[in-house]
Amino acid sequence: MQLTKMGRQPCCDKNGLRRGPWTIEEDHKLMTFILNNGIQCWRLVPKLAGLMRCGKSCRLRWINYLRPDLKRGAFTEAEEDMIIQLHSRLGNRWSKIAAQFPGRTDNEIKNHWNTRIKKKMKYLGLDPRTHHPIEQHHNLDPTVNIQNDESTSSYNTFNNHTIKEENVNILNDKTPTIEDIGVMMMSHDHPLESCSTSFELEFPQNWIDSPGFQWDAFNDPGLGFH
DNA sequence: AATTAATCCAACCGCGAGGGG
DNA sequence: TCCCCTCGCGGTTGGATTAAT
Asked: CA of A178 vs C1' of B2, distance in Å?
């Protein structure tokens, strides 16, 4: 890759710019600036907000942590099921997947996939990339694994679901992929809408408590927080 | 209590897409 | 058409935390 010829510059001028974890003060500066001014150009944001960060870092911090519409907390089983379904169709297109989950970030979903769901699928004998069984002799026996299996907490995603009668045909025809299982569960009891009803705003308490913070600012139509 | 291993997740990096001059 | 720039995406890293020994 010939960066100099193509003119692509490093994301930031390394000299004098801070990296690493954000401080409360930095968060507050960035938040205040965006609330008051919106976002026109990320490259200008740190300069105008008085931050010694590159625009890219500011953008990431805003999107993954400061955005007021972020839904925090653990993923629900329904969300996990939906992620698996979407991943089987979209692959590692995390932003596309995240678009189906209001309040979740692509980074959050990606991390959850890499740390939890992948392990769960491997444990079930499924290839996380293809969503198909890894080896034939490790076939998932749906009648055993989908029903309650108290001995393995890794099966939780499937534990609390029963299978519709018509779906038994699917299981009889072939070894189900995790996508099949997801379809069965979605058709049964977990419409995605149920995930968002528990939507909850949880801001970093430290700067909510700080002087000058006003929830009213989020009503600014220019910011699109509705 | 100390050390090591495992896990989690925020943040960084490199790259491609796309737009403007 | 080419060059430059910004933005956004996906992969990866590394520090903090937790669990195990």
From this structure: 44
